[in-house]
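Render this sequence as a predicted structure.
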Amino acid sequence: MFLRCKLIWYVPTICFCSVLSIFTHLADAKASIDESASEVAEGEDTCEAEPSLEEARLITGRDFYARAGALYDQQDYLGAAKAWEQVVLLMPEKEAGLRIQMAHAYHSAYADDRNPELLNKSKALFSAQLESLGADDPTRADIESELAKVQAELDALAEAEAKAQAQREEAIRQEQIRLNRQALAEAEAAHQRKIQRIYFGVGGSATGAGVATLAAMTAFLAKGNQLENEGYETSQSTGVPPGYYDDQLNSGINQNRAAWVSGVVGGALTVAGASLLVVAGVRNKRLKGQKRQKQVAVTPTLGGLRLQF
């Protein structure tokens, strides 16, 4: 009896524990499944949040397109043109539709930047668009008109550059002529200074020699006069051998002749030397006057006119 009661007590208990264990395992399995499902859902959301390369290209291209429009409205034409270039790089299929906009933007940017390269880019875009159009396209006349405007500006720039180049070449030519004239003038001045030194040297030497010869003439005159007087006094004396006073007279006459010759030569040398000195002085004054005149001159240069002192 006791054993039966004991079995009756244990059997329900064992069954209850088994059922409870089963429910516990089922709850754990359900939690694990829910967690796995949540992770899968999060992974799918992550994959959906990251766009593909194609989508990223399109999004970036649209951003640049919107930025280009905003910059153009703000009159930042160069920035707008560069933004449209980025759109074309990202979306090449949009190039044909953006050529005219970029061409106008570069043409308008030239008014602010004055860079001829902007006109060349505008011309290239207008030309490319014109080549892509048919002969009967209604927009062809407008594009040809815009292209003609750009070409006219490029021609004006080329003409202005040609004139500027001609002016630069003329300035270089004039500068070379000035340098050549200056070199010739300096060579001529050096030659004139050399001649002047010769005039001064020869004139001074001749004058000195003339003065010395005139001094010798004075000595000859004095000696000749003395000998003539002595000869005359001797001829009046008695007891002098015949012919003695004749030698004294002849010596005095010779001294006088030498004095006259020295006088003539000395006078000629003095006059010639003085004349050369006068000529050298006049030339020196003239050279100094020419130098003062050349101290102030206006000459053309690459940068315009130069006031030369």
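Summary. The chain has two domains: 54-132+142-155, 167-308. The mean pLDDT is 76.
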